[in-house]
Specification:
It is built from seven helices and no strands. Helix content is 57%, strand content 0%. With 263 residues, it is an all-alpha fold.
Length: 263
């Protein structure tokens, strides 16, 4: 039978030749990968998500700030401590007996616990918002559905919201610091009753356990929360007054908050 002159064109092997490997399939037409704009569903805009987080934080913080007002922690502020130690001076917080000092100590402990637990939750929300802002919003942020003016306004709102969160957390820190000082001052008075005898007697072991238990609380150990990160220094106060968000220090700030929350 005559050889087909088109065998070579179709890559058909001769009868006595070994069979070649199968040819690689041709790629699908590009039309199969065409993009249909109607099928695209946009995810939430980064800046919109941050503003939503800010509103949620403010809603929670409203009740928290009202609680701070009702607790009246400032009433426990220790004043003229040095004068009372070295001179004879009236102590407005002195209860005059062991039972009264213990009761006053318990009251301050209760207020401390009432503040630090929700404060930790607010700090977690604050951390999440700062992380997202620093990760998603920069000079290259762009939204085709918003004008440059709208973007600038919303970025300003977000930065102002972050500063407000820090102010709220700083206010809570100040309250905890007042209570920490007040508890230590109460323990100073309690120590006078160690082995004093009579109804106003407290053993040295009971006294030491009271102090150690309080230290675990006021150090943040009990709640795994180093709340001192929210102590506002002079630079922060200046930034607050000028409405400035210090993004250039954000990496260090985020690291500190994460460490304070053990995350």
């Amino acid at each position: 039978m005559p050889t087909n002159p088109y065998d070579d064109l179709f890559d058909k092997p001769a009868p006595d030749e070994p069979r070649k490997s199968e040819p690689v399939p041709a790629p699908e037409p590009l039309a199969a990968y065409s993009f249909d704009p109607g099928s695209y569903v946009a995810g939430p805009d980064a800046l919109d998500a941050i503003l939503d987080m800010m509103l949620a934080f403010n809603k929670k913080a409203e009740g928290f700030s009202q609680m701070l007002s009702k607790l009246r922690v400032v009433d426990h502020e220790v004043k003229n401590k040095v004068a009372r130690i070295f001179f004879v001076a009236d102590d407005p917080h002195e209860r005059g007996n062991l039972a009264g000092e213990k009761q006053y100590h318990d009251l301050q402990i209760a207020k401390f616990n009432a503040i630090i637990a929700p404060m930790r939750t607010l700090a977690e929300w604050h951390l999440a918002m700062v992380k997202q802002f620093n990760g998603d919003i920069d000079t290259n942020y762009f939204n085709p559905d918003k004008t440059e003016r709208e973007v600038a306004s919303e970025k300003s709102r977000a930065m102002d919201g972050i500063d407000l969160q820090r102010k709220i957390l700083a206010d809570a820190y100040n309250a905890l610091q007042i209570l920490t000082d007040g508890l230590a001052d109460t323990e100073r008075r309690l120590e006078k009753y160690v082995n004093a005898g009579g109804i106003n007697n407290i053993s040295s072991s009971e006294y030491e356990l009271i102090v150690r238990k309080r230290e675990a609380l006021t150090s943040g150990l009990d709640h795994h929360f180093d709340y001192t990160i929210f102590d506002v220094n002079l630079l922060d106060k200046t930034a607050f007054s000028l409405g400035i968000y210090l993004k250039e220090t954000s990496a260090q700030y985020l690291k500190k908050i994460g460490k304070a929350l053990d995350v």
